[in-house]
Structure prediction request, 439 residues.
Amino acid sequence: MALTEAPRDIEALIDLMARLPGLGPRSARRAVLVLLKKRGALMAPLAQAMATVALTARDCATCGNIGTADTCAICADDTRAGGTLCVVEDVADLWAMERSGAFKGRYHVLGGTLSALDAMGPDELRIPRLIERVADEGVREVILALNATVDGQTTAHYIAEALAASGVPVTSLAQGVPIGGELDYLDDGTISAALRARKSF
Amino acid sequence: MEWQDEGTVLSMRPHGESSAIVEVFTRAHGRHAGVVRGGGSRKMAATLQPGGQVQVVWHARLEDHLGSFAVEPLRARAALLGDRRALAGLNAVCALLRLSLPEREPHANLWTVTIALLDALEASTDWPPLYLRWEVLLLEELGFGLDLTSCAATGDTTDLAYVSPRTGRAVSRAGAGEWADRLMPLPACLMGQGPASPSELAQGLAITGHFLARELAPILNARPLPEARARLVGMLSG
Prediction:
């Protein structure tokens, strides 16, 4: 009889790995094989790190960022400007903003975008908490750093409308030609957005 | 099996490692789904946004298979992203088409009018009356056209002021009599006449909403019409 499957425990691990974004059954199988080959150097430390993070990770009660305390490092940092709030869709976007090093204010993580497809309404997002924060924390500007997609911009418009009564200026990230971008390779939507957002030179 | 058609993207859902299941409203093949290989990639993200106009080649071994799409962008609707009301219009159009149209049933006339509506949304012209008439056409395509040509009671073709919530037929002021308070007010804009004020638009959308909810009741299963439509109605009526 040919051996077509790995032992049950390893198959269970492969099934779990295959649920991760970017991994399918085949790539999960390859990843598990690598882990099995490097059991001592990689697999055991990885398992231990995952167990630790699973126990300690929690959502920041203020902004929704992920940390290991009730208040994340960014919210706890007194050197950060409190008057500017950057609204992002999820933690990955917050990390992307932090990598740029260009923003020194505080964040608010929505936890998704409004989506008719996924039945995601305002109540499923952290929009009510955002409105509370704007009122309570003396915010002077809200920057909407949401994706330039239909769902992302629908959410941005909704938030702008919800904050209109507060009188706080709401801005959004510019859309246009990326660094290193060649016009010939850009889609027409990006080119027209860049043209509309042109500035004096 | 293979065909080629022009269509508008209605939705995109990630599938597997890098693919996506995309629903497209096509000119000759109606609402049709298919797998787009690599559709989950960043490169394809702009092309597969709802409302984007695309050329698709559908391929499957058998007709009843899901099949796969090869997608070429024809026109992005990027200008809509900056316009709150137009974006709400796009969301409502996509949500209603996804909800109401049977799969793989051609609706060429509705497709043409939908493209014209999306063009108007993008051009920021006076599109709300067009949207209202698009919903009337959607009802027609679903098999429930409103009859606003003459009074259901008297046969009059003038002074039509109400719509029967039961039959969808117009009723004149004289024909309504003491039943007027049980009928829905008929705004002129629903008949394609004159400019549409916010209150008239609200009346028109209340009529189309009533009949859409009724016709789509088996699909809605006691849920309301899509939230995207409710948001648009709120904006246009305000």
In short: The mean pLDDT of chain A is 90.
